[in-house]
């Protein structure tokens, strides 16, 4: 190694008179988190390339799939622009990385584009302290030092701006606000006037005060044949949007707020910023547009990403991508080899009718997303909503949030203690008298579920397993067909990267029927909007629309289709297998017709929730291919004059911070009002926003039914939270049997043995075998004879207070023993019998410990 003192300009005397060293340290600290994430991407997504980030990260930390994919896209967009520059410019050229941190762009470019880099000089610029650390790592790592060649110079003075110099790579330690010093040091390294130069700034100059950053951009446009690649944050939906709130709070907590977004929050603002500072050609994309553009990411590359790691954070990925942009600008008057600037990102939606809605916010403080609502009614006619399972703050929830839908509710409904296993991304559909159908869902993105359940009121609410799906399914769409108890299920994912191409009809009496598909068959997709046509339906023929969702290429589907479903089963036969038998049913036929220009492009949405309102469809939330779909947008599909119309739902308050954030929300229509609960999103690496409020609003009058309470001018009841009900997964929910089966498979009737016990060893033998038996002639003592209302009241006292827990267990609001006794008497023997049957010898129930003193006198005297 050759080392000499660099003969370059030294720092000016006045450097940081008005600058805080502490702030500089905080900004440099942002490099640490970023570089760990990039190392995660490098190891997972580029296993065949040299691991250059590895040398700057002491310990590998695998990031979440959302963060990995976001950083992969950030790195890709910059890599593409750098590649285009290197390929387009012949002869000597310079790539200058402003605020480079520990980025390894020079090394990666040489590995990927070696021939184009022969005449290229890469220059890294950042704070001197950070660059000295980077220099030390480069010099002590042979895999990095190799880029320097056999001859290079290392600065020996703290006053030198050039810390490391070689033919192909240089390092500069300089404050980017000292533009005169920066120009001098660059001129000492190359002839700037005749050299193409690409400036790269990835989330770096945004930490400068905006005036200084603007001066830097204007100065850069005057340096040689300059081009600029900038990647920074955006606020496309304003500061009040949940993602923006979370992002800004994150950086404020770090005391490193991004300053540019305050002045240039949108892509239009950034475009004008560059045009007014000497850049004649400006191209700009938010990162979702870049993801969707073959110039940056080809379809086969998007598909291949799913093979690296399971991924299902699509709404959150889209939110992240909408809040970042990449820009490529050129100071040259005409750059023929550069593509023309794309149209600015303005919505091309054809605005139709608009409706207004006014939400009432009900603070609840419940954290749940990707669950679903089910409604039920108790014996007294009180109505409730259950927001079921889904994802909580730490894991998938094994509970339901129980809400009262009317003011008459004074106690909680009696709910099943067992049911489907915890899951997310499933569907729940009301089948009327047949109960409520739960279909599929997932644990992790690689663990799709095929089990289906019916919530019925058979002498009390309980879950019953029903026909399984032909294949596991999540992120599917489900729709009850008008006037029937049939459910149409469309699309969805069957695994980490497989999308279902099938359509099914569920009949509570016949099970799952796979549809024959005809017409303009849509691309397989998941997370689509599926709704009925408000103008057309009959007993055996139904029609509707399907649009949006994400297809195999990772893009939001732009095409919209009208579907017609014949359920008269006259077309063909389908065979549904369970066990080793075969059942023949008729096959329904679904026919598709592509719709040309009839619907707004705003309906190209992924992950929206839909709810039927008197034949109209409310579309709530989700993220879309059109920038206006931001997780808070709402639309209504209605009909008038024999024509389907799309209406934008405007909130009476335009404040995004007070509007529901409908990513993973549960939506319900009841009694003239729409109710929204739950939802939220992980905002990249910056934290999670939870929608902890419940929102309630009267639907527009034009959509109301005469049966609605609100239609009579009465004020609707206010939704209120009662409690969270925990549910234990039923044993049958854990079985991995993937056969398409009738409820409980092929039914076999087995005789259960009946026996009497003569010794404790016989009882122990029964427990060891684990087989059901009926035990007869048990002696439970005098309790069966003595324990009646009069006896217990006499022994304990009729005014004996009952704990709230005891009252809740027995589903009663009665507070004294005399009033509670009718229910207690029926249950006490069952409780004791359960203890005897499930207890092992080591923990057999002890009457003196298990039961309170007031029961011990009569408790099984022979035990």
UniProtKB/TrEMBL annotation:
Query: Which GO BP terms sit in this record?
Result: tRNA methylation; wybutosine biosynthetic process
In alphabetical order, the GO MF annotations are: tRNA methyltransferase activity
Please give the catalytic activity noted in the UniProt record.
7-[(3S)-3-amino-3-carboxypropyl]wyosine(37) in tRNA(Phe) + S-adenosyl-L-methionine = 7-[(3S)-(3-amino-3-methoxycarbonyl)propyl]wyosine(37) in tRNA(Phe) + S-adenosyl-L-homocysteine; 7-[(3S)-(3-amino-3-methoxycarbonyl)propyl]wyosine(37) in tRNA(Phe) + S-adenosyl-L-methionine + CO2 = wybutosine(37) in tRNA(Phe) + S-adenosyl-L-homocysteine + 2 H(+)
EC class of the enzyme, as a word: transferase
Q: Output the InterPro entries linked to this UniProt entry.
A: Gal_Oxase/kelch_b-propeller, Kelch-typ_b-propeller, Ppm1/Ppm2/Tcmp, RmlC-like_jellyroll, SAM-dependent_MTases_sf
Assigned EC number: 2.1.1.290, 2.3.1.231
Q: So which domain of life are we looking at?
A: Eukaryota
Establish whether keyword tRNA processing is in the entry. Answer: yes
Q: In which pathway does it act?
A: tRNA modification; wybutosine-tRNA(Phe) biosynthesis
* Keywords carried by this UniProt record: Methyltransferase, S-adenosyl-L-methionine, Transferase, tRNA processing
UniProt lists the family membership as follows: Belongs to the methyltransferase superfamily. LCMT family.
Q: What is this protein called?
A: tRNA wybutosine-synthesizing protein 4
